[in-house]
């Protein structure tokens, strides 16, 4: 019986020429290795690579694909997550942006990344996501999800909001916004707002007030089983909900935004074995933020 042909889906930030050129190189290497390579319709014309299967830009594009390789920055990967999550397809990011915390490889590692996929020298880890519901008088007005964060932000004037944890009121804040983040999102918007960095292996939810005018306005780390709610006070100008900086919903005064852990994770392909000590993430922090480690000697070995 013939072996099932392996399939990859390639997506790229086609607004950047380096991403388009990288996509062509990746496609050529996968085709040489005998893979079926899919490219989505909106990108196929600009990538212009022969031998690919052009598919509609829908979640079905990622179905049965071994990996979805993403060439771009974190924004490109978050867009690709919308396709990969329903299909359960692992994302493999190659960073062509700036920080690129979600990416597994840099542009210089492009050939090695392809070779490792071909040789099946990678592992897959699951990253927590959150489900987000907007309610008014018990009626669901909007329902969505996030990998990094759900951010409730002021529209015009200062936002007036009451935070709730597991059905109990926590505090009222006058603020620019409140961020509900996952460990994956702790190095994104929540980090910019003063939230803590949380290792991806830690299961938790983050609640980070943004520029709050209150004595108690510290970032909070709560149980992954907790339910977080933010109530926009009546009489205010309303707010805006952003999920991963991609999905936007206008929030009228008086609505309630509920955030809890979602059942469906996002899967990420890792080219290096995941050390249970979290050491690879430590190295990533040092590299991405250019942290000073001069003078470190490590444990003295006998």
TrEMBL record:
Q: Which reaction does it catalyse?
A: NAD(+) + ATP = ADP + NADP(+) + H(+)
Grouped into one coarse class, the protein's main location is cytoplasm
Q: GO BP, one example?
A: NADP+ biosynthetic process
- Single GO cellular component term: cytoplasm
Quote the EC number: 2.7.1.23
Q: Where in the cell is it found?
A: Cytoplasm
Q: Report the InterPro entries cross-referenced here.
A: ATP-NAD_kinase_N, ATP-NAD_kinase_PpnK-typ_C, NAD/diacylglycerol_kinase_sf, NADK
Cofactor entry:
a divalent metal cation
GO MF terms listed in the record are:
ATP binding; metal ion binding; NAD binding; NAD+ kinase activity
- Gene3D superfamilies recorded for this chain? Probable inorganic polyphosphate/atp-NAD kinase, domain 1, Probable inorganic polyphosphate/atp-NAD kinase, domain 2
Q: Which UniProt keywords are given for this protein, alphabetically ordered?
A: ATP-binding, Cytoplasm, Kinase, NAD, NADP, Nucleotide-binding, Transferase
Active site, UniProt feature: 74 (proton acceptor)
Q: Provide the binding site for NAD(+).
A: 74-75, 79, 148-149, 176, 187-192
Q: Which PANTHER family does the entry mention?
A: NAD KINASE
Sequence similarity: Belongs to the NAD kinase family.
Question: What's this protein's function?
Answer: Involved in the regulation of the intracellular balance of NAD and NADP, and is a key enzyme in the biosynthesis of NADP. Catalyzes specifically the phosphorylation on 2'-hydroxyl of the adenosine moiety of NAD to yield NADP.
State the protein's name: NAD kinase
Supply the gene name. nadK
């Amino acid at each position: 019986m013939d072996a099932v042909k392996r399939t990859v889906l390639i997506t790229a930030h086609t607004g950047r020429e380096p991403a388009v050129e990288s996509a062509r190189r990746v496609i050529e290497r996968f085709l040489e290795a005998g893979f079926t390579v899919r490219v989505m319709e909106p990108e196929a014309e600009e990538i212009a690579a022969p031998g690919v299967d052009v598919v509609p830009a829908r979640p079905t594009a990622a179905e049965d694909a071994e990996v979805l390789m993403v060439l771009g920055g974190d924004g490109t990967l978050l867009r690709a997550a919308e396709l990969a999550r329903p299909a359960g397809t692992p994302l493999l990011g190659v960073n062509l942006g700036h920080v690129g915390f979600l990416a597994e490889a840099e542009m210089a590692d492009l050939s090695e990344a392809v070779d490792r996929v071909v040789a099946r020298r990678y592992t897959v880890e699951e990253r927590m996501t959150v489900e987000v519901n907007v309610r008014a008088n018990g009626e669901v007005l909007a329902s969505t999800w996030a990998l990094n964060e759900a951010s409730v932000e002021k529209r015009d004037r200062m936002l007036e909001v009451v935070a709730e944890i597991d059905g109990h009121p926590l505090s009222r804040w006058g603020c620019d916004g409140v961020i509900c983040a996952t460990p994956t999102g702790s190095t994104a918007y929540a980090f910019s707002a003063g939230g803590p960095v949380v290792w991806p292996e830690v299961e938790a939810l983050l609640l980070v007030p943004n520029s709050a005018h209150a004595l108690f306005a510290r970032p909070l780390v709560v149980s992954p089983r907790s339910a977080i709610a933010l109530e926009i006070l009546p009489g205010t100008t309303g707010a805006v909900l952003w999920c991963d900086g991609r999905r936007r919903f206008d929030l009228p005064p008086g609505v309630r935004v509920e955030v809890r852990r979602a059942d469906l994770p996002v899967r990420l392909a890792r080219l290096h074995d995941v050390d249970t000590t979290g050491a690879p993430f430590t190295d990533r922090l040092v590299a991405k933020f250019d942290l000073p480690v001069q003078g470190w000697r490590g444990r003295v070995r006998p």
